[in-house]
Specification:
Blueprint: E1 17-22, E2 36-41, E3 47-51, H1 63-76, E4 85-87, H2 90-93, E5 107-109, H3 110-120, H4 123-134, H5 137-150, H6 177-190, H7 194-198, E6 202-206, E7 211-214, E8 226-234, E9 238-247, E10 250-259, H8 262-279, E11 280-284, E12 288-294, E13 298-299, E14 302-307, E15 312-316, E16 320-329, E17 341-349, E18 352-361, E19 366-367, H9 370-381
Antiparallel strand pairs: 1-16, 2-3, 2-10, 4-5, 6-7, 8-9, 9-10, 11-15, 12-14, 13-19, 14-18, 16-17, 17-18
Helix pairs in contact: 1-4, 1-5, 1-6, 3-4, 4-5
């Protein structure tokens, strides 16, 4: 692999690094039988396979991915705690579908209810969590949709915390494999403890009356490395799943939408994950400080630029090939704070773009004075500078 060079254009030069990898020019055709599917590297977001990833359906119980994300964001921010008591409302106790049969006034910790949502997809527990955090479920749904917009989930709207068909006045609910993958990546990255819950097959919820949580994901314990994440079903949506598994330090995330039955959902999830683990291998790419950027109107004029992330990309197995890594600039807007995005790190395999990662400023940049900018223009015209 060639060394990392300084980036010497205005404002950021394109630099290419060649990484020798095991790759194949052509791969046998692969497809899944469901209408919509997506397979990504959970660590980087790299898409390994997609089939109608923006096909829209009601989210069903996959809505609980957002419920868990919003609730655990509140825990992380210190606004609620996992050990605080949550009292079930009459509304929560009346929820249908998958549930833990909460009675009105029944008290559990927030942790217990979140595990009921994560493991068994309990609708009554989801409502109890939503009401506890936001006061009302509609207020919590506002938080869900705001978080979805922050994440760039442009093709999603959530109507409730549980994913059952919307009641009168709740409005439409819809999502896509693309957007659910975004939410699942955010959940795993920000709150990895959720995988400790979703890998549980059976757990006691209460003693009197006795009730156990049974994982709705039948692949847990059956597929090597699989430890989550959520299944769903509505007649309008078909059988859905967002599944994640880790092998050899690589975590994959698979989304299946519109399967005909549980058997197809499971078989196609296995096929998708097998495709990822068997046909791709990780290749290291440079990260950290990868060069310098020139900001012509900035002070200082040159700043270090950085790339964050796991420092890998997945390439097809097969014969040797080259992966190109280059940097693309964004027009600088001053002032720039350390950590602001100032470009993109683009990884390509042949003609195919594999991944784009943000490029961050390594230090603050203020606008240079008019006198400094004038001097730089004169210097550059005379062929000076670096």
């Amino acid at each position: 692999m060639k060394g990392i060079a300084k980036l010497l254009s205005t404002p950021i030069v394109s630099a290419v690094f060649l990484l020798v990898a095991t790759a194949a020019v052509a791969q046998p055709a692969f497809d899944v039988s469901v209408p919509s599917a997506l397979l990504i590297d959970a660590g980087t977001g790299q898409v390994l396979l997609e089939k109608q990833p923006r096909w829209s359906v009601p989210p069903a119980s996959l809505a609980k991915v957002m419920t868990l994300l919003v609730a655990l964001d509140e825990v992380k921010a210190g606004r609620v705690s996992l050990d605080e008591p949550v009292r079930a409302s009459a509304r929560a106790s009346r929820m249908a579908g998958s549930r833990v049969y909460l009675r009105e006034g029944e008290v559990h910790t927030l942790l217990e209810l979140l595990k009921a949502v994560a493991i068994a997809g309990a609708n009554d527990a989801a409502v109890a969590v939503a009401e506890h955090i936001a006061g009302t479920e509609p207020a919590f749904v506002v938080m869900m949709n705001e978080r979805a917009r922050e994440l760039g989930m442009a093709d999603s709207r959530f109507a409730n915390s549980h994913g059952l068909p919307p009641a009168e006045g709740e409005g439409e609910a819809y999502t896509t494999a693309h957007d659910i993958a975004i939410a699942a990546r955010a959940l795993i990255a920000s709150h990895p403890e959720v995988l400790e819950w979703t890998r549980i097959r059976v757990e006691r919820f209460r003693d009197q009356p006795l009730f156990n949580l049974y994982n709705t994901n039948n692949l847990v314990g059956r597929y090597e490395g699989l430890d989550g994440l959520r299944t769903g079903y509505l007649e309008e949506s078909g059988y859905l799943i967002v599944a994640t598994a880790e092998r050899g330090g690589v975590r994959l995330l698979a989304v299946i939408m519109g399967a005909r039955d549980e058997q197809e959902r499971e078989s196609q999830t296995i096929s998708l994950l097998d495709y990822g683990f068997q046909r791709f291998i990780p290749v290291t790419i440079p990260t950290g400080r990868v060069g310098e950027a020139r900001i012509p109107a900035g002070m200082p004029e040159w700043i270090p630029v950085e790339v964050r992330g796991p420092g890998r990309v997945l390439v097809p197995r097969g014969g040797p090939a080259e992966v190109e890594v280059e940097i693309e600039a964004l027009p600088p807007t001053l002032p720039i704070a350390a950590g602001d995005a100032v470009g993109e790190y683009v990884i390509r395999h042949g003609e195919r773009e594999l991944l784009r990662l943000p490029l961050y400023a390594g230090e603050d940049v203020k606008p240079a004075s008019w006198l400094v900018r004038l001097w730089r223009r004169i210097r550059d015209a005379l062929g000076g500078g670096r």
